[in-house]
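Quality-control log, excerpt.
Job 1 of 2 completed; input and output follow.
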Amino acid sequence: MSKSVYSGTKSFAIRGSILTYQQLDELADSDGLETLISKLKGTPYGEYLSDLQKPFDAVKIELALHRRLVKVARSMITATSNSKVLQAYYSKFLANNLKTILKGMALEKSYDEISRFVDLYAEELIGSRDVIVRVLASRRLDEAVSTLRSTQFGEAAEAAVKAFTESKNFQVIDIYLDRAYYRTLLNGFLSERSDKRDLREIIALDIDSFNITSVLRAREWGLSPNEAEQLIVEPEFKVPRDVLVSLARAETPAEAISQLDRTPYAGLVTQQDSSNPGWISLLESKFERLKLRAARRTFTWDIFSISEALGILKMLEYEIRALSAIGFGIEQKIPRSEIMQKISSYGTEA
């Protein structure tokens, strides 16, 4: 059995276990976190929740749910004989932990405060836990950067901390670690020898959306146009560099939206949105919908390709986001209708 057929079969099997919008609605109707966990024990997430200790909270639940995604990702890497794209996707888990740690340190949070939001399961499965533990134990950001220097995220971590030091905005750390991840993902795609046609759409959307939103966020968070331009991941797909440079140099939301109208993503936000202070967040949410749609469409393309493995991982990622939002909503006693409104895009089929 070829690696594409094997991974495709696994992907279709997992696809059948994806929770429906109606099931999510029933979960959101739980009267507390204990009830939510009890309901989830009848799903594929049950084994990952069984070791949770009281008192329960939304963060503990989210980290436990995320372990399923990590484990499935590792199994897909094995099923595809170490697909470069899937290995790159796995590095996202490592990047996310580093973002949490570095931002926590930037905010001068204690070891215990940061550790509460970090689970090293992904690192444990590939034998890189010790490095992240040393980063977590660092007393200063420069010490953390020094520990990471010889790793795949060393350069990005150094650039992130430098940008934070200059801008005093801890959020810029996200952009630099995300850029390192997307560069790894793009390189993985370029090195794949098969299934590239099917992978192209889903990878292109990832790279395009990062390039657009990162230059916009960089400017919003205090970086210069030149610094924003340096974040662009190349080669680009549907959005050429000159448009991205124009976005980085745009002085107003209206000007930036005009540049977006030159791309295939015209209409995601309009000039009417330019007066909305949260217009970039709106754009990001529209991109997330497109990504979920693309992940679902991998099952309608040429069946039994690596794109389905990546697609099912992304679908699980969105499912876990929805479940985490439900857990947070229940914890905060938010009405079910409001919780479901927040995850409404999950119910929009391709």
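Job 2 of 2 completed; input and output follow.
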Amino acid sequence: MHRLNPHEAEGMEMSDLCIKAGRKAYDIIMNGGFDFDSIAAYVAPAGGPRWLAASGFDLALLESGVLGRKKPVLLSGTSSGAWRFAAWPQPEPVRSYRTFMELYLKNSSYKRGDTPQSLLESMSEIIDTYIEQDAIPFALTNKKYRLAVTTARAKNIAASETKWIQQMGIGAAWVLNAMNPDYIQWLFERVVFYYGPLPPRFCLQPGFKGRAIPLNITNFKAAILASGSIPLVIAGLKDIYGAPVGIYRDGGLFDYHLNHEYTGREGEITLFFNHQERVVPGWLDKRLKLRRPPEPILENVLMVYPSESFAGRLPGGRVPDREDFLLFIDDPATRVTNWRRAVELCAPLGEQFLEVMENGKIREVLGRL
């Protein structure tokens, strides 16, 4: 593993990574009471191909084994965040993760003539490849990582696979969300699939609106697939075993970046790697520039994200984005080349974070969230 020299570590905040913390997490870190055993939850947001910026960070954490050493860590993911976290509790997590990344780079293409159903089938093939069926029992008894996957069960017109009707449903959901995020429950229900003796802490809070369903051998892959079934792009998944009947879509509708208090005990911290500085609660909040998670949600969060200068050095001057599918629809080879280069450039980010943790420099580069 590459180690930074002191000069590199001191310049990290200005060059590659930005590290910020909510009020409680900031105080814990600045008072010297933080180490990797303080991390009780690691959250992976939705965001399509933007997850590729987190690949080096994830792999550094996986290969070093720093999370979950004393107690299980909650891995809470939505959409592409759920896809990447599904590799973590596998018997060979690094191999599973790298297999998923390779399949995503090569096979998650968007071609003229594709339909929502064909894209669902394509993503299902990817999941079937990097998650082996006979390995699921191991994932469901993993001692280090406990998985939580968020989906959205569509209701009323939002459950239709007829494009114009579904468009009306999404449009109505946008209007309702702009009025009050709670109103989208008329069209969608948050359903969290989890592994553990009890539902995750955030599912047990008074403000949680939705239901929690245990993961099992039968619904494991279905939950992962449904979590990334983007409305109007990928077909929804029908009737997941063990959950209420219905059409299940991308959980980012509810939990796009951060939308819950994932930790609660004294000294616990939620780790969050994002592709940008702004934290967006739900997918429908993206255009609502003033909407952000309530402060209590951010208090225990340690957020890491690429600096603007670093993102500007990536192909196209930005983190990979879902728009790349359309931009390179007739030239997928260029898209794959660009994304591979982005992965290569992002590969050292995790090791840089580990180094800053190990040498105590985190207190020098830490900002307030």
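Post-run check on job 2. Confidence is low (pLDDT under 50) at residues 1-14.
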